[in-house]
Amino acid sequence: MGEMEQLRKEAESLKDEITAARKAVQDLTLQDHVAGTAVVGRVQLKTRKTLRGHLSKIYAVHWGDSKLCVSASQDGKLIVWDSYTTNKVHAIPLKSSWVMTCSYAPSGNMVACGGLDNMCSIYNLKGKDGNVKVMRELAAHTGYLSCCRFLNDNEIITSSGDCTCVLWDIETGSQKTVFAGHLGDCMSLGVAPDFNTFISGACDFTAKLWDIRDGQCRQTFGGHESDINAIGFFPNGNAVITGSDDASCKLYDLRSDQELITYQDSGIMCGVTSLAPSLSGRLILAGYDDFNCNIWDSLKAERVGVLSGHDNRVSCIGVTPDGMACCTGSWDSFLKIWN
Amino acid sequence: MTINTLSQDGVQRQQMSCLTKMERMVISMQDPDMGIKLRNQRLLITVIPHAMTGADIVEWLIKKCSISDEEALHIGQIFVKYGYIYPLKEPRNLILKVDDSPYRFQMPYYWMSTRWPASELDYAIYLAKKNIRKQGELIEYEKECYNALHKRINHTWDFVVMQAREQLRASKQRRKADRIVLKCQEQAYWLVNRPPPGTLDSIDHGPERRTMNTRVQLNAEFYKKEIEHNRISLARNRVKSSICLESYVKYCEQYQPHDPIMQGCLPSIPWITDDIMFWNMNCETVAVPTKLRVERWSFSFMELLNDPMGRKEFLTYLKKEFSAENLCFWQACEDVRHGETSKIPEKVDEVYKQFLTPGASRWVNIDSKTMEKTLEGLKRPHRFVLDDAQMHIYFLMKKDSYPRYLKSDLYKNLFARAIVPQETKKSVFPFMRRQRHSSPSPALATQAAEDDGKAKNSNSFKSNSGTASRR
């Protein structure tokens, strides 16, 4: 017992030293630094399209390119939309209706989804006979699948309620690397623009940066007071943005290894469910439990706009790769495209 | 009040942390000095004390939080939905109206967080009371719930009925005004905690989550790993926050003209004008690129490599410099990294033959140390075996060829030839909606763009779209 207590104390004191080292490089506050930056002004986006077709809560949406996106709903369907024409390109029935996440492969050839079935199912969209079929079922997690993201047509990363993230080889269906270290359910993940690292946010209130190649956790970021539901990279790959049940979003810089900016407001009481930065990173669009999306000026940490129109919580949000529009999905079963 | 539930693994977890924040605000709303002014409100023939109007609530929120009308209404709605404020006039309709509709604060006894989760037994007693009080007072879904509960907790049903009778008897001894108030409060509580089907369920917060991973034992092994991780973390180099913040400011500035949500785009945003010119003009195989696109290649080497057209142009340049094998090698390595696992050995072998063997036709110049390491790794090829070599060549191109390409005539001429699209105005006549069609295949992009331009010119009078102009 004595040894463990000593080890625990050592770990704690190292943590304190890290906090001090982080503080040591804080030479300027955000306010001072961006004082000279131009103000963004009010950002007003309107709903340009409403995608109707799901019969139950939408849990996830992911863009494939500037027009195609895939959405997952607890009505047991995965729908691939041409959001510009609002046509459903594919309506894929799922074996398990308790789906919580979906992802579009960068190549556009596949989509993946998973949820309370603890599996990640990969569907081939470009099958020979035109039918969309299950290509692979990746099963090994002992908890629900909260998020999945393709690296390419052969590799996919998943995060799970069993507190781990896994890199899979789709071809063989095997686990290539297990990223363990979180002390709570992993709720979301984001891949770096250079595909060398990825970040995960969990119910232990921390975000971790992982090296895909060697499976090591490179950096850990704390500061949130509740579960981290949403996570994403700043477009230049040097920062991580997180959204939490504590109603705030935070920006953690990778190079200075600390939280630099917090996005919160006394009038916002409900948790953040999802977030996405605009193409330049200047705007952060975040979806909340109170049915709205707030648009934040990422540099000045001020709210510059609201997207309201959903009748239930906004569960997912995504910005197109060309930065043209953003899509929100909600528990009210509708997807809305905004610009 | 925080709700700490004991989950299956025996660990405390806070639920619905948003409720704490709401309660803080609700309490300040009820502050005798700074809160909302409460007065008596008339409901039919009874006078209800300590009530307020919907307009009062919104006005207070606007002043207190310095927000707009819509935002104040939105926040007010949240309080009604979560049961902290309830309407007196139309109790079943849990919405906030910005007029003189009367509302009241729910007493803390009936806050969601006080009695979490709402108990089945309490609900049974409530429904029993309603049933006893007036036959037929239970509405459809309540009847169903009542019957279901009767089946499920049949063994305590005598207790339920007894409690219901007792509570009804006690309430008869109260003043009419108090009786009505208590009835309203109780009803409001159950409307929130047992919402009728088809209405919003405020308690619903998704699947169950865990905080502590019970698989992870907080033992010596765990702490040793923590110490190791912390030691490495402590030793890392940390960049000053001012430098980091500056880099974000610069990045945002540089990319702002490319961010359509912030600055729009030319010719127009397809989502707004129904005109897909932008996508046609920026597709992969277009003959003449836009200026913004060519400019973006100069932001970073990755931007150039991420654009297939950029890669093609760069390859042309490298061919002139007799260093095209570098880019080809880089692309071959990418193919290994992101391709099928089963094909890795044969692909790596190909790469070795073409690029790494001494005397190879497209031999790449890698330093001896990296070459040695790579050749060793080739004995057991895996996805990342070429990473070091690829990185070496990548940096070689980035530091040397890339900057020179940006200064070259090839690039400068392309930039000069690149077009700035003319702005398409939104069609003034809404019924002259352009035919929406799915985007043409890239191979036909240039032809389609021309045809499109011709068709548009003949269809609309006011819009001044057309084929892109040259500068």
Compose a concise summary of this entry.
Chain A: This is Guanine nucleotide-binding protein G(I)/G(S)/G(T) subunit beta-3-like. The complex is a heterodimer of chains A (339) and B (471). With 339 residues, chain A is mainly beta.
Supply the CATH architecture of the domain at 289-417 in chain B.
Orthogonal Bundle
CATH superfamily of the domain at 289-417 in chain B: Regulator of G-protein Signalling 4, domain 2
Radius of gyration of chain A, rounded? 20 Å
What does the largest sheet of chain B look like? 4 strands, antiparallel
Report the uncertain regions of chain A: none
CATH topology of the domain at 289-417 in chain B: Regulator of G-protein Signalling 4, domain 2
User: How is the largest sheet of chain B built, in terms of strand order?
Assistant: 3-4-6-5
Please outline the helices and strands.
The complex is a heterodimer of chains A (339) and B (471).
Chain A: H1 2-24, H2 30-34, E1 47-51, E2 58-63, E3 68-73, E4 77-82, E5 87-93, E6 99-104, E7 110-115, E8 119-124, E9 133-139, E10 145-150, E11 155-160, E12 164-169, E13 174-180, E14 186-191, E15 197-202, E16 207-211, E17 217-221, E18 228-233, E19 239-244, E20 249-253, E21 258-263, E22 272-277, E23 283-288, E24 293-297, E25 302-307, E26 314-319, E27 326-330, E28 335-338
Antiparallel strand pairs in A: 1-28, 2-3, 3-4, 4-5, 6-7, 7-8, 8-9, 10-11, 11-12, 12-13, 14-15, 15-16, 16-17, 18-19, 19-20, 20-21, 22-23, 23-24, 24-25, 26-27, 27-28
Chain B: E1 3-6, E2 12-15, H1 18-29, E3 39-43, E4 46-53, H2 54-65, H3 69-81, E5 85-87, E6 102-105, H4 120-133, H5 140-152, H6 157-172, H7 176-193, H8 220-235, H9 241-255, H10 260-263, H11 270-273, H12 277-281, H13 291-296, H14 301-306, H15 308-321, H16 324-338, H17 344-356, H18 368-377, H19 387-407, H20 409-417, H21 445-459
Antiparallel strand pairs in B: 1-2, 3-4, 4-6, 5-6
Helix pairs in contact in B: 2-3, 4-5, 4-6, 15-16, 16-17, 16-19
